[in-house]
Amino acid sequence: MKKITALAAALVLCAAHASAYENSYAGYSVKDGQPYYKLEAKKVYAYTNISSKKVYQNEEDLKNTAVNIVNYYTAEDMEQILGEKFSTAYFDAEYEKLALLERSQLNPKTVPAPLLELEKYAEHDSNGNVTIQSKVLKEKLDQLTPLIKTGKIAGKKAITISYLYKQSDVLVKIDTSLVSANDRLYLLSTVNTDQDLYAPKKDEKSADADADIDETDTDEENEEAKTEPKSAASVKEEVEKALEVENVFVRDVPAETMQRFDKAHTDLLKGFKAFAPTSTPKDISFTDAAAGKSVQLPDDWFYGQLNLKYKDKGTFYLTLASSMKEMQEVAANTDYDSVYSVLAIPQADPEYQKKVTELYSSGARNVLQHWNHLLITASVDNITDAEIKELLSTPVANRLAFESFISEGLQRMKGFSNEYFALKDYKTNFDFTQEKALIGINADTDLLKDFAYNNKILLSCNQKAATAMLFIKKTDVETEKSLEQQVNEWHF
Fold it and tell me: Could you tell me which of 345, 369, 370 has the C-alpha nearest to residue 357?
């Protein structure tokens, strides 16, 4: 009996570990339940609260998906943010101060509260962290009135900042709880949405359609006015209006909706566990179970992975990885005014195509100046396709057919080169047997003449699975040798 009990306990522990994310250097773990989407970087982990197994089994669950985000900060990070020494004792003192104000029914903002100045965390994002309060969203949240409260959630002292607002007919709730342990601060955030509450009703949609019909029945003068070019400023104003945020009161939201929102955030804190951190930083790596491959990424990289389990049809993985610093630089240097200018050009303008191309080129050039690397992998297992089996049954004939088709296509592409894209050179590799097939392409390209990239493409399959990999990097940029080796081995 004791042996059976011990075995059951071991199985429970194994199951719990399998559905949890752990960062020993950060000193925490969180039960993520094998999410269908997740993102990991050095100091942030984000995931959906819907399991990969449920994505295509219940459409209603998918619509109500919440996103959980865990950010962590060391004592040194917090000292830079706060301008003073930080420890868990410091956090506890701030917690008690805010709790006293709450019990006295006083506004927490009546006294200095450095921990609640979340804009300072956003300013610290360049150190491998990305928070909810970053960039554009920060500007929107500044227009809203947050609800600040203290209390224990799942047994943890938490200072929680909540936003409830409407944007583009969607109800949004963001809860960020600050908790501390082992002289680290953790931001535990949940983003919930409800697309039904403020969705236009059927009669409203019909009225809008009727209005559109009425607008077409205008005189010639109005028709000309309607086709007048818009200014970039007016287009920007329209976009900003569509993205406007509006405070929403809890009393105006159905109780069951608020309960769903609260449960999602409570579940995050229930699944969060802090422990003594280790001295060895965690490697950023992802695993593709369908391909049976893992890739350890450079320290400043991130990855996002989509994991879909189809009932009785296997699993599909899609992973994108790149440098966090490079992506942040791209975002920071994006010329949004140029985007508005493109949207403002009427297609009837004789110069439309020329202006769009010029603006596209300038925007792309701005991106390419900061973007050096991109890795994309995709895999699917449990293959039952007859064409795959046919491909492997006659390897010699199929190898010759694929080699001819791909080589001819690459040669045509090389001759088609222009000022925007040029295929400079390429090499191919084909390896077909009755057990597996591999197609490898190594190509050098120029984008906008001034940006040279090397592109590696690997396509392979065996009797059970298929996988594809694309790795793009600037030719004049150094890449870690270990990463290049892992990329070259991404095949069966």
Answer: 345
pLDDT of residue 77: 92
Residue of 310, 165, 336 lying closest to 239 (CA atoms): 336
Query: If 0-12 CB within 10 Å is exposed, 13-18 middle and 19+ buried, where does residue 127 land?
Result: middle
Nearest to 67 by CA among 161, 192, 195: 192
Per-residue pLDDT band for 366 (boundaries 50, 70, 90) equals confident
Place of tokens 């990239």: 453
pLDDT digit string, tens, across residues 125-143: 655 677 776 655 667 777 8
Q: Backbone phi, then psi, for 362, in 5-degree steps?
A: -65, -40
Of 308, 375, 318, 304, nearest in space to 69 by CA:
304
Is residue 290 within 8 Å of residue 467, measured between CB atoms? yes
Please choose, from the candidates 31, 67, 11, 277, the residue with its C-alpha nearest in 3D space to the C-alpha of residue 154: 31
Residues 315, 58: Cα–Cα separation, whole Å: 17
User: CA–CA distance from 330 to each of 137, 162, 318, 323, 326 (Å)?
Assistant: 17, 30, 22, 11, 6
Express as a percent the part of the chain with pLDDT over 90.
53
